[in-house]
Amino acid sequence: MAELRDLPAAIVASSEGSSYVIKIDGYSRIKGQIEHGNYVKSTPFSVGGHDWVVWYFPNGCDTQAGSVSVFLALDSVVAKEVKAKVRFSLLDKDGEPVESKSKITEEHIFRSKDSD
């Protein structure tokens, strides 16, 4: 697993209902400091009664070198599996999603971070 690198205030987040916006300040600086395969983790946020975090790989992960990778991770201990569909979107300067830079995942099963 990639090493977690903490960059204070590199990711600023706010929760609005069932959406979560991450503003990445200093993208070029972060990209220059974080090596391929390493990530910055967002502050936890709550949606649907569960805590979540976003893992942001500014230089990609695994075979995705040269591109940005973003993952959603369950950050709660849960008794049951949690199913969710997720949409990741790059926003333009007006805060609107850029359709060509948006991805909707298939339904994914998330398990507790402490489960086997």
Automatic annotation (TrEMBL):
One Pfam entry name: MATH_2
InterPro entries per UniProt: BPM1-6 (IPR045005), MATH/TRAF_dom (IPR002083), TRAF-like (IPR008974)
SUPFAM superfamilies linked: TRAF domain-like
CDD domains, alphabetized: MATH
Organism superkingdom: Eukaryota
GO biological process: protein ubiquitination
Name of the protein: Uncharacterized protein
